[in-house]
Amino acid sequence: MVVEDGSPRSPEATLGRHVEDLWDIQEPQLSPTEKLNACFESIPVSAFPPAPSSQVIELNSDTSLADAVKLLSKHKILSAPVVDVKAPKDASWIDRYIGIVEFAGIVVWILHQSEKMEGSAGSAFDMYVSEETIGPAVAAAANGLSSPRFRSLHPESPTATSGNFFETLTSSDFYKNTKVQDISGSFRWAPFLALQKSNSFLTMLLLLSKYRMKSVPVVDLGETTIDNIITQSAVIHMLEECVGLHWFESWGTKKLSDLGLPLMKPSRIVKVDEDEPVLQAFKLMRQKGVGGVPVVESGGSKAVGNISIRDIQFLLIAPAIYKDYRSITAKNFLTAVRSYLEENQKDSPLLSGMVTCQRDNTLKEVILKLDSTKIHRIYVVDDAGNLEGVITLRDIISKLVHEPRGYFGDFFDGVLPLPANSRV
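That's the CBS domain-containing protein sequence above. Prediction below.
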């Protein structure tokens, strides 16, 4: 957007004006999508505004899971690059970083371990937490938690859905002593995947959409540290700042239904009943590879709330808020979190609750709503409030550009994504 004197009001708007200039000189026979592809291919990723300093944090590889969760929660971010504490001080970035840890990865790892706790003493769980793999102190703590007296901690048991489970987990040596480096198998990409400053906007947008990256680090080959981190949310904010520009309006004023959104049929939506244990919501996220699920009223399809992968922070950093619940159902979880936020974090975007729209809304309306609430997904409902679909930030970005045939070439050589079932 621009201010009254006609100048852009922000770095993102300046960037949008640059896209506008490129848009105006494209060949007229090109389709709008082809024009946008050409524009974004012409802009280096170094032109993207830097992330706020408060959101650029690094985690040392020997940081405990407990401290990692606290730091991510404190800075209101979903992921952070992990620095190898054993790397020399003058190491290049490719040797300095071992990957990016995400809230999603921590959640997946915790659930994976808790599911294995039901096994016997000779189970694969005990083998996984041997001294050779994660060190003697952590192995001892983990094997202690897999003993018979902790069997009731399995996620499907009554104990697992009460506050006691999380108080036990968060006070355990297992949780406190496990290091970020110990869960490197949960990192989305291995080894570390980053963009160089000379790479294009198009490359960045495709990584954030088709290739499912939540954030993309940008590096300079001659430097030892990350220059910038670009998130899906930052891209949506950039789009919000471009409202009014011709290239944006030609794309953003289309109705969701005309763009093929939502992508998923109603019958395939992953959802949880309000009376189900909240751990079922997080288990579904892990099993289905999604970052959030809607909560629907008991026995119906009316959406009453949303639980995202980052919400597990409230089970880990504030388990005391559930001490009066015999069972933490999805409904009780939503109620307890709202009360906690109203008392402790009145400015939290999570207080917005569930954000909804309808199929005849425009993409611009959805972008404005998502950016203003700082929420990562919006649910499509009918006039009666029944759930018809979900639209994520990734879905929106995927409608902005497309991948030309053979575009990435050997870009991914040596960078192997983890199996699909380990992604969230």
